[in-house]
Amino acid sequence: MSKGIKVELSEKLNKLPPYLFARIDDMKVEALRKGVDLIDLSIGDPDIPTPEHIVEAMKVAVEKPEHHRYPSYAGMLSYRQAVSSWYNRRFGVKLDPSKEVLSLIGSKEGIGHLPIAFINSGDIVLYTSPGYPVYPVGALLAGGVGYELPLYKQNAFYPDLDNVPSDVLDKAKLLFINYPNNPTSATADESFFEAVIEFALKHNIIVCHDAAYTELYYDGERPLSFMQIDGAKEVAIEMHSLSKTYNMTGWRIGYAVGNSEVISALGKVKSNLDSGVFQAIQEASIVALGTDESVLDQIRQTYQQRRDVLYDGLSSLGIRSARPKATFYLWAKVPDGFDSMSFTAHLLDKAAILTTPGNGFGNPGEGYVRFALTVPVERIKEAVERIKNIL
Ligand code: MLT
After folding, report:
1. CB within 8 A of 275, min separation 6: which ones?
2. Which of 81, 178, 215, 272 is deepest in the core (most CB within 10 A)?
3. What's the alpha-carbon Rg for the chain, to the nearest Å?
4. Which of 182, 248, 252, 331 gets mutated to test ligand 1 (max ligand atoms within 8 A of its CB)?
């Protein structure tokens, strides 16, 4: 019998499922333990290394004693200026680095903490689903309730904002949207973003646009920033991350931009809970934000080639999906006779391919699996071959 204390989890933690990608990680460890030749197409974690010039900048920055002390809470002004210049160059959006930009320890951190700033017990956080699992988790940990806005193919993976029940709208304080979308890979047009602004103004709801994938686009079609739309700053912030654009998932750095009151409130939460981003990482990230587009074009071309091989391969096997215009995810319908989980298990057990079950991103994702394009093209060809053999 244990002599220790009786450890009782809080009601909130008890309500939380294990993090989707922690579960996937367990599946991966188990498969590798069995010694299988696993093709991992699950988490969106780039296999391509961080570009050399960023790593070199980090080596220099890490030697500087001034960076070994606590970082600035909001982020170094020079980092926030670099973000602001990047927005101006990329989107033609002007941001005041002192009030409209905040450093984040990756956008996951910002998404998780944002509801604490605005949500009282029982308040509602609207979020698109299937979606990044952190949206409802942040709501729950803040004492609020997440409310799923389903994304369906027949609606171009846009939420139906006209049919949110009025009792939900009465309690809704925050809305998370995400385009280019994880996991569906859908992109948004200007008129959708305009409708979101109108909705937010009408119902007094703060919008957080998760823009982590704007730089992973194909065929030269550059996605929009929400901040490009007239009126965006009156209702919204946008979160971005260096993770996917510059292959920096392990570095943990991102930022929030936009409405200065929302940015300030998020900054207040963060300064009470974390102490900012290691300044050496911020300094290297300034260099990252100045990366020549030709370097990013190369990365996009690599993913585009993988996308085409996987899309064409799955299509030839009768597995239906849309050829992604952005993100490095392919959102595919499971074949008849399977659901999300059974097809994921089938791919893992019979073909040693790890994918993410669509329902892991929320109930409307049932009937899909997500493939991440994060292995070399030869392995994608091999994956298609293996799938062919087990169907
Ligand atoms: C994903 O694969 O959806 C994300 O990369 C996971 C994450 O960022 O935590």
Report:
1. 70, 71, 73
2. 178
3. 21
4. 182
Instruction: Grade residue 2 by pLDDT with cuts at 50, 70 and 90.
Output: low
Q: How close is the Cα of 41 to the center of ligand 1, in Å? A: 12
Q: In terms of Cα–Cα distance, which of 258, 256, 282 is closest to 113?
A: 256
**Is residue 44 in contact with ligand 1, taking CB distance under 6 Å?**
yes
Alpha carbon of 21 to ligand 1 centroid (Å): 7
Cβ(21) to ligand 1 under 6 A?
yes
Which residues, in sequence order, are CB contacts of 51 under 8 Å at separation 6+? Answer: 246, 247, 288, 291, 295
HSE value, Cβ hemisphere, 13 Å, CA-based, for 17: 13
For the stretch 382-391, pLDDT in tens is 999 999 999 9
- Pocket perturbation via mutation, ligand 1, pick of 20, 27, 109, 132 by most ligand atoms within 8 A of CB: 132
User: What dotted CATH number matches 66-289?
Assistant: 3.40.640.10
Beta strand extents in 138-293 (DSSP E only): 145-150, 172-178, 206-210, 236-241, 254-258
- Whether 131 lines ligand 1, by a CB cut-off of 6 Å, is no
Angle at which helix 260-273 crosses helix 107-118, to 10 degrees, equals: 100
Can you give the pTM of this predicted structure?
0.96
Is 182 near ligand 1, meaning CB less than 6 Å away? Answer: yes
CATH of 11-49+294-390, one of 3.20.20.20, 3.20.20.70, 3.90.1150.10, 3.40.190.10: 3.90.1150.10
For residue 1, what pLDDT is reported? 55
- CATH 3.90.1150.10 domain position(s) in the chain: 11-49+294-390
Q: Structure tokens of 328?
A: 């490095």
Model pLDDT for residues 127-172, shown as the tens digit of each residue: 999 999 999 999 999 999 999 999 999 999 999 999 999 999 999 9
Residue 314 CA, ligand 1 centroid: distance in Å: 23
Token pair 């009937």 in the structure block, residue: 367
Q: In whole angstroms, what is the distance from residue 161 CA to residue 183 CA?
A: 20
Nearest atom, ligand 1, residue 183 CA: 3
Distance CA 375, CA 355 (A): 12
